[in-house]
Amino acid sequence: MTRIAYLGPSGTYTHQATIQQFGVEDNEMIPMVSIQKCFSALLKDESISYAVLPAENSTNGQVVFTYDLLRDYMLETPNAARGCMLPGFAIVAEQYVAVEHCLASPLPMTADELKNANIERIYSHPQVWGQVGKYLEELARVTGKALSRCDAGSTSQAVDRCLRDYREDKTVTLAIASALACRISGAHIVQSHISDVADNTTRFLIIQRRKQEPLQILPGRQPTPSGERIHLVAFTTDRQGAGSLTDVLLVLKRYGIDMRSITSRPFRRCSTSSKWQYVFFVEYSDELDVPWDSFHAEVGAHCREWCHWGTFYRNNRYYS
């Protein structure tokens, strides 16, 4: 049996990504209370083989908690040859989950009945508010009042709080969550597909411990991956000033490598007073006939620290 840690509780979009990647048979999916706990569980518990983490949303951008932890683990790893860091885990797959938010209630209720209901609060994860803003404006117009927005640790927790309010004192509140969360908890869906952007999607990374077991690029179950492979590296530049990032990116150009994305997160060394330093994350395609050892040596020559986080198949949902 394969044990997988994921950002819980059950019913979250991360749970859905875990199911898509591994299926449900012969697997134990272990919900964690934070992204940090997912990393820690994988590193400290040898019975856990993988962890599934949210990385970015097509509407709201990167999940900074995940990138900040990747940054921290890279910078805290003892220096290896040529400045290359080897943290205790690697990225071996990606998944994409369509974010199809639903309006949930503890009671069966139609959208028309909602107009006359005495409801004052609505729960969801803080990131969700920016994905359903137009819907909430229309809801306020129809009902004649704006609901008080209450943050929850996850969309699944939002549903749980909604159900608890009714269970404890018969107060009817609402939640915005996934259909999976509603189905698991027993909440009633008042309205489906309420996201402002119809094709809103979240990307997830699957990480595996580097030690104790050989790394394996996972094919993924739903959907099947494309034949394209992607590399993810992170690095700091070897100097400050004009052209330091360009020096690294020009290596990709010389080798004819297609860069697919670049993002950055700030960091600060205790040994320097500079506040404006960055770890850059770059994804690029696995081109044929590239002398990778030579390429990585040239990249490393322009970096103070760098880390090859992993190689994985591009998921077909990337193209849809």
Automatic annotation (TrEMBL):
Kind of enzyme, top EC level?
lyase
- A cellular component annotation (GO) from this entry: cytoplasm
- Per the UniProt record, which EC number(s) apply here? 4.2.1.51
Q: Keywords for this entry?
A: Amino-acid biosynthesis, Aromatic amino acid biosynthesis, Lyase, Phenylalanine biosynthesis
**Highest taxon above the source species:** Eukaryota
The yes or no answer to whether the keyword Amino-acid biosynthesis is present is yes
Q: In which pathway does it act?
A: Amino-acid biosynthesis; L-phenylalanine biosynthesis; phenylpyruvate from prephenate: step 1/1
Its recorded name reads: prephenate dehydratase
**From which organism does this entry originate?**
Eremothecium gossypii (strain ATCC 10895 / CBS 109.51 / FGSC 9923 / NRRL Y-1056)
